[in-house]
Amino acid sequence: MDTTTRPDVLLLHGLGATGAVWDGFTQLLDRPAHAPDLPGHGGAPRLPRYSFGGMAAAVADRLPGAGPVLVVGHSLGGVLALTLATGWFGIEVAGVVAVGVKVEWSDDELAKAAAMAARPPRVFETREDAERGYLKVSGLLGLTGADPAGLAESADGWRLALDPAAFAVGRPDMRGLLAAARCPVLLAAGEHDPMSGIGQLRELSANAVELPGLGHNAHVEDPASLLPLLDRVAAGPSGAAT
Questions:
Q1: CATH classification at residue 229
Q2: Which residues does the chain have with pLDDT short of 50?
Q3: Of 177, 199, 185, 174, which Cα lies nearest the Cα of 238?
Q4: pLDDT at residue 237 in the model
Q5: 134, 184, 186: which is closest to 14 by C-alpha?
C-alpha cells in the first residue's frame, strides 16, 4: 500500500496518564501520529463533567483535521476510541485498536471510583513524591518516568495535573459501542493484565488478541507489540470485529 494514502494515527492514553506514554510507540511508526492529553489530564483543559461522549467530543475538537485516522486507545482511551468510531463527533475513523479496556465493573469498583472523583487534589510536599503519585495513579510505576506535564506546582507543594473528577466517567457500554462502530475494531489485552481479561474481551469479540507476557500497559512495556495490531485492523474486517 502506498504510505502516502494511509491514515494518520490517533493515540489515546488511559486514565491518569498523558500522551507521553505513547512516545516509544510513535518512534516506531512510519506515518504521522497525534497523542493528545485527554481532557482533565496533563496540559488539556478540564471539563465541567466527565462522560465518554464529552471527552470524545473534546478530543475531536482538538484534532487538526476530520480524518481519516486509525485510533489506538489504552484503557479509558480505548473506550474513547470506540466512542469516536460511532461517527457522532465529526471524525472519520478508519479503524480502532482498543488495548486493556476494563469491561467488567463491580458495584464496589464503581463506588470507589466515585469516591476518588469527589476527593480534592492531593498535595505532595516534594516533586519526587508527586512523581511517584502520578506513576501509581496511572499504573506506570516501575515502567517509565513521570511526565512533567502530569504534575503541577502550587504555593503549598506539588499535585497531579489530573482532575480527580475524571474518575467519575463511569462504566462503558462496550456492547453498544461495538455495535455502533462504523469501522473495523480490534480488542487486545496483555496476558497478565489484571484489569482486562482476554476471556472477557472474547465474549465481546471472538477476534480479541492476547499479548503474550505483557500486563495492563502493554503499549509502554513493549510498544512494538502493537504494530501488528495496527496493520491487522488497517487491513479491514477480516482481522477485526465490525
A1: 3.40.50.1820
A2: 1-4
A3: 185
A4: 64
A5: 134
Domain ranges, residue 74: 3-107+166-235
What pLDDT is attached to residue 234? 84
Q: What is the mean pLDDT of the chain?
A: 94
C-alpha cell at 16: 491518569
Closest CA to 185 of 121, 97, 107, 104: 97
153 within some domain: no
Q: pLDDT (tens digit, 9 = 90+) per residue, 35-56?
A: 999 999 999 999 999 999 999 9
All cell numbers assigned to 205: 469479540
133: CB partners within 8 A, 6+ apart: 122, 124, 160
HEC readout, the chain? CCHHHCCEEEEECCCCCCHHHHHHHHCCCCCCEECCCCCCCCCCCCCCCCCHHHHHHHHHHHCCCCCCEEEEEECHHHHHHHHHCCCCCCCCEEEEEEECCCCCCCHHHHHHHHHHHHCCCCCECCHHHHHHHHHHHCCCCCCCCCCHHHEEEECCEEEECCCHHHHHHCCCCHHHHHHHCCCCEEEEEECCCCCCCHHHHHHHCCCCEEECCCCCCHHHHCHHHHHHHHHHHHCCHHHCEC
Closest C-alpha to 156, from 117, 133, 130:
130
**Domain annotation covers residue 66:** yes
Tell me if 23 is assigned to some domain: yes
